[in-house]
Amino acid sequence: MCMCIYHENANLILKAIDKFVVSCIIKWWQWVNINERAEKKEFEGSVDEAVELLKSKVKYFLFQVYIKREQSKYFEQLKSEVTDEKVVIQVDFAENFGLKEQDEIQSAHWNTKTLSILTPYVWSKSQGFSFTPPSNDVPHDKFVINSTIEIILNELKTHVPNLKQIDSFSDGATSQFKQRFMFRNLIQIAHEYKIALSWNFFATSHGKGGDVWTKCLKTN
C-alpha cells in the first residue's frame, strides 16, 4: 500500500479498529495539516466515530489508488517500449546538499553553502543509466529548469546518439517542472534538438525520485 498522507490515514484507522469492538473507546493516529505542515496526531473516540471518519475518506482513498495504479501501468508500459531511439527518463531534484569544510571555524556553521543535485535516470533498450549534475543555483526557478532540461538532453545525446523521442516523468511541484514557462520552453527545445518530447507528472505525494544514488553521492 502506498503510504502517502491519504493512504496512511485510512490504514492507521483500520489498524485501530481491528483490535477493538464497536462499543469501545479507542485511539487512533491521523495525519493532519497544521499551518501548512503535516503532523501525525492522536485522536480518541468511539469505534462508530472512527468508522464514520474512515467512510468519509474511502472515496478519495480509492481515487488515489486508481491514479497510482494507472500511472504505474502507463509508466511500466513506456519503459517496456523503449528503443535506442526512444527513451524514458525520470527526473527529480534531491534535497539541497549543505557543503561542509574540514576543520571549519565555528562561525562557518551559520554560513553554509548549498548545492542543488539533479537525479535523472534513463531507460533505453541497450542500457539504463543515471547521472547527478550538481549546481550552485538552488532556487529551482524557471531559469534553472530550462538549463536543467538542456543539460539532460546534451547528456542523453552522448549516450543515445540516435535519440528521437523522450518520455519524461517528474513529480508535480509547481515551483519546479510543473509551471507554464517550462511548457513554453519545451516546444522550443524540442524544435532545436529535433526530437519528440513529452512530460508527465506523477500525482501529488506519489512521485518517486532517485533517492538511492543521491544518498550514496552525499555520503561519499
Description:
The protein is of the alpha+beta class and 220 residues long. The protein folds into 2 domains: 72 residues, no CATH class; 139 residues, 2-Layer Sandwich (Nucleotidyltransferase, domain 5). 40% of the residues lie in helices and 23% in strands. The protein is built from 5 helices and 10 strands, in the order H-E-E-H-E-E-E-E-E-E-H-E-H-E-H. Helix 1 packs across helix 2 and helix 3 packs parallel to helix 4.
Strand and helix layout:
Blueprint: H1 5-18, E1 25-34, E2 37-46, H2 47-80, E3 86-90, E4 97-98, E5 114-117, E6 121-123, E7 128-130, E8 134-135, H3 142-159, E9 165-170, H4 180-193, E10 196-201, H5 211-219
How many domain modules?
2
Oligomer: single chain
Largest sheet: 5 strands, mixed
- How many DSSP H or I helices? 5
* Average predicted local confidence, pLDDT: 79
Element order, helices and strands?
A: HEEHEEEEEEHEHEH
What is the percentage of strand-forming residues?
15-25%
Uncertain segments: none
Shape: extended
State the name of the first-level CATH class of the largest domain: Alpha Beta
Number of distinct beta strands: 10
Which radius of gyration do the C-alpha atoms yield? 22 Å
- N/C terminus separation: 32 Å
CATH architecture of the largest domain: 2-Layer Sandwich
Q: What is the CATH third-level topology name of the largest domain? A: Nucleotidyltransferase, domain 5
- What structural class do you assign from the helix and strand content? alpha+beta
Q: Helix content range of the residues, please? A: 40-55%
| Major beta sheet, strand line-up | 7-6-3-9-10
